[in-house]
UniProtKB/TrEMBL annotation:
Taxonomy of the source species: Bacteria, Bacillati, Bacillota, Bacilli, Bacillales
Record's bilayer topology term: Multi-pass membrane protein
UniProt keyword terms in alphabetical order: Cell membrane, Ion transport, Manganese, Membrane, Transmembrane, Transmembrane helix, Transport
Any one Gene Ontology molecular-function term assigned to this protein's record: manganese ion transmembrane transporter activity
Cellular component, GO annotation: plasma membrane
Protein function: Probably functions as a manganese efflux pump.
Protein name as catalogued: Putative manganese efflux pump MntP
Length: 185
């Protein structure tokens, strides 16, 4: 059985997509405590998925520009950026405030999608520096974050907030690990 030549890249990007989607998942758990209709849940997931495509795209454009200008130093910078994002994600999981500060309708939905996908911009920045396959990245980041958002919203209806803390910790740890991998080689 032939193995795709970029299987390692698919696996790495899948783990990164899961790590980034964990932020949306954990926030969606808290938001799932708000009574939401299934149509609203579906829309929220699609919008979050789209933002997890747009943000890394913007980051990749900037990252590729920086890579052409600065060369090898940008790889180390991208790794450091991933580690800092992971640490921030891990630290935010230790905060006790799990309730969403906004209602996911109209501007609130855009604000929600932006807030859970901002880290995707920074990750896109480092991925643009490393030169990964763009379409594969977008498909994985968008679909995984959309599915994790749906899962978080639906689970939030059934479960209290303790899972959100642990999922953000795992996501932060994964980002730190990939940042170290990028720095070490």
């Amino acid at each position: 059985m032939a193995v795709l030549p970029f299987t390692g890249e698919i696996i790495t990007l899948s783990f990164m997509a899961m790590a980034l989607g964990m932020d949306a998942f954990s926030v969606s758990l808290g938001m799932g405590l708000i009574p939401l209709r299934l149509r609203r849940i579906a829309l929220i997931g699609v919008v979050v998925g789209l933002f997890h495509i747009l943000m890394p795209f913007a980051g990749m454009l900037v990252g590729r520009f920086l890579s052409n200008q600065l060369g090898a130093y940008t790889t180390i910078g991208g790794g450091i950026l991933l580690i800092l994002l992971g640490i921030q994600m891990f630290r935010s999981s230790l905060k006790s405030d799990d309730t969403p500060a906004l209602n996911p309708v109209g501007f609130g939905l855009l604000l929600f999608a932006t807030s859970v996908s901002l880290d995707s911009f920074s990750v896109g920045l480092s991925l643009g520096i490393s030169g990964v396959r763009t379409a594969l990245t977008f498909i994985l980041f968008g679909s995984v974050s959309m599915m994790l958002t749906w899962c978080g919203l639906l689970l939030g209806r059934k479960v209290q907030g303790f899972l959100g803390t642990y999922s953000e910790m795992v996501g932060g740890s994964i980002l730190c690990a990939f940042g170290l991998q990028l720095i070490i080689g």
